Amino acid sequence: MSESLIGRRAGLSALETLKYQGDPLADAVIADLVTGGRTGVVNEVLAQFRDNDQPIPEDLPESVRRYLIDTDVPPGWVDLDRVAGTYEFFVDDGVHVASVLSFGAMVNCYAQPRPSRVLSLTHRLNQPHRRLSETSQFVLHLMGPDPFGSGGSFVPTIQKTRLIHAAVRYFITRSGEWDVEADGVPLCQQDMLGALLIFSVQVIDGMRRIGISVTEREAEDYYYVWRVTGAMLGIPAEAMPETLTAARELNAELVEATYGPSAEGIELTRNLLRLYEEMVPGKAFDGVVAAMVRQVVTEEVADWLEVPSSRGWRRAVGAGARMMRWLERSEDRSHTATAVLDKAGSLLLGGSVRTLTNGQSTALTIPADLREKWLAAGVCPVAHPRT
């Protein structure tokens, strides 16, 4: 590290220093594997490492085995009863969470110029199906009844995600196309914290924008599960606010304040909208996709990312959001209202399962217990169960 960079960091705020922090545990593993030329073999082994209960494979380099052991348990401060309680929220509203993640959170991520540039350097601007599929699967594993414990599949997902991020950091910083001193570390801890706030705080806000009722207790618990997830992803615990109120304040300061237009963000959004439109048969309804995005994100973000605007479809989607609010209020009294509400939330996730693999043999998997409950309620998309 250069002396100028050290001096610069010394005068930065705690949040700003996160721009220059990677993930030492995962970064060391990737450096060791690349130096030893063993990345291909490790990828093959880890592809079969999928469940929390599964023994760590023996045929792994020592650096990988040590990393998997060191990152195998949630932080000591976690309240697993509170995590388990959030599962009921996922049972009731998991399909709506997935829809808002797809329509809103992904687009808000693209409103951040620096992370969007990282995606451009990994040649993933034209692969929205892959990024959305990976994000959807990550959240589906999170939705299990005990995501960090026995029977779940979330811990290996987190561990492998950290290694993927570390690999991206390794190769981009050595590509000659990234200035660490000026721009910070690619996929730095500040970017990771921003993504956590988008997937938690902003998802709750987006659900409310489309008319889904979320109590403050549900919102607090949903954010709590993401805070535990953030700790397991390597985000410093002290960087993550303990309360939802503080998280909302940080979201405004750290995330929304950095939103802006970029060529990469515009292209990412355009490709994502095209993917969604392919899920809707015919051309007559193409405008509803962009209108739905505009309902979930702010007007400014939609304009920056050049999301098309149709007055007619915007009115229709706005009316739909008002109807969703009415259906939510009548949900306890009307089985019909419940069926309509849940069907609306499951359509996008079901479409994603069918198309996001882009012809590949893989498919999203839904935790078995959650799948059973969704099937009983008649809202489960077609996907592979986790057995």
Topology of this structure?
Elements: H1 3-10, H2 14-17, H3 24-36, H4 39-46, H5 62-70, H6 80-110, H7 113-121, H8 128-142, H9 154-173, H10 180-183, H11 189-209, H12 216-232, H13 244-255, H14 263-279, H15 286-296, H16 299-304, H17 311-330, H18 335-355, E1 365-367, H19 368-377, E2 384-386
Parallel strand pairs: 1-2
Could you characterize what this model shows?
With 387 residues, this protein is mostly helical. The chain has one domain. It is 66% helix and 2% strand. It has 19 helices and 2 strands. The chain has a two-stranded parallel ribbon. Helix 11 packs across helix 13. It starts with a helix and ends with a strand. The N terminus and C terminus are likely disordered. One of its GO terms (molecular function) is oxidoreductase activity.
Keywords:
about 375 residues, mainly alpha, two-stranded parallel ribbon, about 65% helix, about 0% strand, ER-bound oxygenase mpaB/mpaB'/Rubber oxygenase catalytic domain-containing protein, Lcp-like, MPAB/Lcp_cat_dom, oxidoreductase activity
Provide the low-confidence segments as ranges.
Answer: 1-8, 319-324, 330-345, 351-364, 382-387
Strand order of the largest sheet: 1-2
What overall geometry do the principal axes of the alpha carbons give? globular
- For the record, give the distance between the C-alpha atoms at the N and C termini, rounded to a whole number: 47 Å
Helix content: 55-70%
In terms of DSSP E residues, the strand content is: under 5%
State the domain count.
1
Summarize the structure.
This protein has 387 residues and is mostly helical. It has 19 helices and 2 strands.
